[in-house]
Every structure is written in structure tokens, then in C-alpha cells.
């Protein structure tokens, strides 16, 4: 009897695990350009569909088949696919005790069998630190993880020439069944030339730190081109999860579609970028934005909620007009429009329903990111600073003058001062949207 009940329980658990399939919608912001992606997860397979930024062509759909240790990349327009194997990685665990290795005598090969081959080396240092912070996100227990990755190519490397530092601050969860190993080596396609052999750089990864990643729900990433001391440029990106739902998914989403042909190379999947069309689209989008913001007598569409955003008050270290527009952009979406206004009279001319005022009460430089991550080896000492920021946001109804929301944002934010202040005010805008929606 007990055995029968146990078998029934195990069968029930197995059915429950098999039914855990997910659809996740995420948004990425890179230097002011936003894109969205939809991720489908079923068992040990994941499908990612990305939207292009501005009028860029859509990137290939990527299917990650962890059970087969490979990627499948699709161009639905051309009906082409390309297969890329995960491949083996040279990963050295710097926290592990060194093993005693017995060296074997080198046996010289006959000269006629020795084939000269130029192979560069991409050295990578990957550190992961679990902060110990936990919180519930989308029904899962999420881990707060910091990672630092340094990449330095040898002089004869062919896949990249410049050093790179990537710092990520994110929250991660474990999805049932989806336990695809973390890939330390970036996905690359060998370059080919009629007169040259395929590029075959060797990647050597040194890993340190305790903790594990998983499926990302939010990430803030700083990419520094250069060695950190003489950096040529810095790019900051952020990713957040907009929707997370469990639903039944068709297995056909995770295989090569019928009628698709194998591409000769990954480059064949890519559509040509029309730069002129991209610039035209950018002008159109900006003209539309200017038209909306410069016509105070424009009527609203039915059902639209409009917010007049005042320029932040307080600390003079930041570019207040830029932060004002940043908040307007953060609040706008769907049936909510947010516009920058100077005063209440202008807000009424715009037919705003609410006004939002912000008082930045404190911006104090904290330790550098390198100081925050003292436990991380090889952290760049010249990392972007962090700031302790306090700001008070007040949402007021223009209909009766009542206060709908007063919220204080307080925390430590990484980045240059304007970027850090922008992240703090974005958190405040999220609270405003909760009240309005």
C-alpha cells in the first residue's frame, strides 16, 4: 500500500515538473535604445526571440538545446538555420587546490607531419560573488549576484584585439529542469577567407569566487573597452523582466522548423543593415516626440492618462533637465503619457491628469564599485563610482489638488553621477506607475 502511494506521488511530481514551462518577456536598455525579447523555456531547452533596436533588422532566433549541447540560430525571413556546438572550454578553478600533474616526455613528430598553425589565446578571468541577498521574484527565490569578467587577447588573436571588462549586477533564479551549464566563452563564429585558414583562437578561463548564476530576471551591466586604466569607452546596459508566466508550449518551438535550409555560415543568417533607413526612422521618432512635447493645446486620446513631470529640485551636481526627460521616458508606455513641463499652468495646458515633482535630498559619493566588491580578485581599481542617493517623489492630482503618492527612494547606485541618479529616479517612477495602474 505504501509502495503504491509512493509510486503515485513520484508520478505526480514527475507530471508537475514536466508541466513547468515558461514564457518570459524582458526589456533591454542600451544607451537610450530599448529592445524587447521573449524567452520560452521547456525542459532543457530555451528559445529567445529578440526585437531589433530602432529600425535595425531582427537578430536571429536562438534555440538553446542543453540536452544536445548546441545552439540553433534561425532566420525566419530567409528560412535558414545554423548549428553551433557548445564546444569544450579550458576552465581553471583558481579557488581549487592545485593538483599534482605528472609530466610526460614530449615525443617529437616527424617534420613532414608537423603543420604550422597560428592560434591566438583569449585569456579570461571570471569572478562570481553571491552577496547573500535573497528576495521573492515572480514566485521564485532570487539570488543577488555580482560578476566581473576580464578578457585580454594575445597579440596574435584573430577574434578580438582589444581588452574588455564586463561587470554585472543581477538577480537570478533556478528554473526546474533547465540546468544548462554557464558558458564562460562568448559565442563566436570562425572567420573564413579564401586564402586563410579558419580563425581558431583558444579560450582559457580562470574562474574564482563562490556562488552560481542561473536564469537572469534583472541585470545592470557595465562594459569597459580597454584595460580599465586607459579605457577607450564605456557602455552601460540594463535588463528587466516585464512578464513571467507559466503556460503550455509546443515542442516545435525548440527544434529546426520544417523546410529550413542549413546556412553555409552564421554570417549568411544576418540581414544587411540599412543605415539610411535607420537614421530616417530615428528622425521620425524624434520629430514625433518633439511634436508631442511642444504643443500644449494638443488633445489627449480617449483613455490616456497624462503626467506632467517637473524638473527635479535639490542637488546641483546632476543635469536636471536630462533627468526630467529620463523620468518622462520611464513613465511613458501603453495608455500612460508623460511629458516634461515647467509649471502647473503648462501641465494644465497639456491636459495632464497628474503632476510629478521630485526633490533630490542627497547625492553622496560612496566607495567605488571596486570597493563594493572587495572580495573579488582582480577588480578594476578605477571602476565607476557609486552614490548614496535619496529622492522624494510626489504625485499630485490636477483635478482636485490631492496628493496621490509620496515616496522616498533611498539606496546606493553604481555608475557616473547622472546615470546613478537616473537609476534611482527610475525606481521611483516604478512606484508611481503602480499607483496609476
Fold and architecture overview:
With 437 residues, the chain is α/β, with parallel strands linked by helices. It has helices at 2-18, 275-293, 320-331, 344-349, 369-372, 417-436; strands spanning 21-30, 33-42, 45-50, 61-65, 70-75, 80-85, 90-93, 121-137, 140-153, 164-173, 202-208, 215-225, 233-246, 261-262, 305-309, 313-314, 336-340, 354-368, 385-397, 403-414. α3 runs parallel beside α6. The protein is globular and about 65 Å long. The protein starts with a helix and ends with a helix. Residues 1-19, 109-116, 188-197, 274-295 and 367-384 have low confidence and may be disordered.
| Secondary-structure class | alpha/beta
Helix content: 10-25%
Tell me what the CATH architecture of the largest domain is: Clam
Secondary structure tally, helices: 6
CATH class annotation of the largest domain: Mainly Beta
Low-confidence stretches: 1-19, 109-116, 188-197, 274-295, 367-384
Rg (CA only): 26 Å
| Topology as a string of helices (H) and strands (E) | HEEEEEEEEEEEEEEHEEHEHEHEEH
Summed up, the domain count is 2
Strand runs, count: 20
Order the strands across the largest sheet as they lie in space.
7-11-8-9-10-12-13-1-2-3-4-5-6-14
Query: Can you summarize the main beta sheet?
Result: 14 strands, mixed
* Mean pLDDT across every amino acid position: 76
CATH third-tier fold name of the largest domain: outer membrane lipoprotein receptor (LolB), chain A
The portion of residues forming beta strands comes to: 35-45%
- Determine the N-to-C terminus distance: 53 Å
Amino acid at each position: 500500500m505504501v509502495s503504491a502511494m509512493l509510486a503515485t506521488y513520484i508520478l505526480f511530481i514527475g507530471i508537475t515538473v514536466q508541466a513547468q514551462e515558461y514564457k518570459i518577456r524582458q526589456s533591454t536598455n542600451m544607451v537610450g535604445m530599448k529592445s524587447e525579447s521573449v524567452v520560452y523555456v521547456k525542459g532543457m531547452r530555451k528559445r529567445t526571440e529578440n526585437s531589433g533596436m530602432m529600425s535595425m533588422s531582427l537578430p536571429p532566433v536562438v534555440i538553446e538545446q542543453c540536452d544536445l549541447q548546441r545552439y540553433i540560430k534561425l532566420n525566419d525571413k530567409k528560412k535558414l538555420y545554423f548549428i553551433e556546438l557548445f564546444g569544450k572550454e579550458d576552465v581553471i578553478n583558481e579557488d581549487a587546490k592545485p593538483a599534482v600533474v605528472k609530466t610526460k616526455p614530449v615525443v617529437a613528430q616527424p617534420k613532414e607531419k608537423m603543420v604550422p598553425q597560428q592560434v591566438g589565446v583569449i585569456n579570461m578571468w571570471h569572478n562570481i560573488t553571491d552577496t547573500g541577498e535573497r528576495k521573492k521574484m515572480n514566485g521564485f527565490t532570487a539570488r543577488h549576484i555580482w560578476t566581473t569578467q576580464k578578457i585580454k587577447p594575445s597579440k596574435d588573436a584573430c577574434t578580438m584585439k582589444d581588452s574588455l571588462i564586463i561587470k554585472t549586477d543581477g538577480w537570478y533564479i533556478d528554473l526546474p529542469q533547465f540546468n544548462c551549464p554557464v558558458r564562460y566563452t562568448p559565442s563566436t563564429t570562425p572567420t573564413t577567407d579564401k586564402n586563410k585558414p579558419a580563425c581558431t583562437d583558444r579560450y582559457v578561463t580562470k574562474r574564482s569566487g563562490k556562488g552560481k548564476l542561473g536564469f537572469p530576471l534583472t541585470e545592470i551591466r557595465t562594459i569597459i573597452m580597454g584595460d580599465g586604466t586607459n579605457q577607450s569607452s564605456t557602455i552601460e546596459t540594463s535588463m528587466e523582466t516585464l512578464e513571467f508566466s507559466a503556460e503550455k508550449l509546443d515542442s516545435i518551438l525548440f527544434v529546426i522548423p520544417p523546410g529550413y535550409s542549413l546556412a553555409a555560415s552564421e554570417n549568411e543568417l544576418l540581414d544587411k543593415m540599412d543605415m539610411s533607413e535607420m537614421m530616417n526612422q530615428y528622425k521620425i521618432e524624434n520629430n514625433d516626440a518633439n511634436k508631442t512635447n511642444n504643443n500644449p493645446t494638443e488633445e489627449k486620446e480617449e483613455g490616456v492618462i497624462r503626467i506632467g513631470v517637473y524638473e527635479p529640485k535639490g542637488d546641483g551636481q546632476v543635469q536636471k533637465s536630462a533627468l526630467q526627460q529620463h523620468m518622462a521616458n520611464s513613465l511613458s508606455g501603453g495608455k500612460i503619457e508623460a511629458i516634461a513641463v515647467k509649471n502647473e499652468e503648462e501641465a494644465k495646458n497639456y491636459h495632464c491628469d497628474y503632476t510629478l515633482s521630485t526633490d533630490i535630498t542627497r547625492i553622496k559619493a560612496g566607495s567605488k564599485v571596486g570597493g563594493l566588491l572587495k572580495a573579488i580578485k582582480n577588480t578594476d581599481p578605477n571602476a565607476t563610482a557609486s552614490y548614496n542617493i535619496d529622492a522624494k517623489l510626489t504625485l499630485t492630482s490636477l483635478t482636485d489638488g490631492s496628493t496621490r503618492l509620496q515616496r522616498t527612494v533611498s539606496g546606493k547606485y553604481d555608475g557616473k553621477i547622472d546615470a546613478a541618479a537616473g537609476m534611482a529616479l527610475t525606481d521611483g517612477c516604478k512606484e508611481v506607475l503602480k499607483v496609476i495602474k
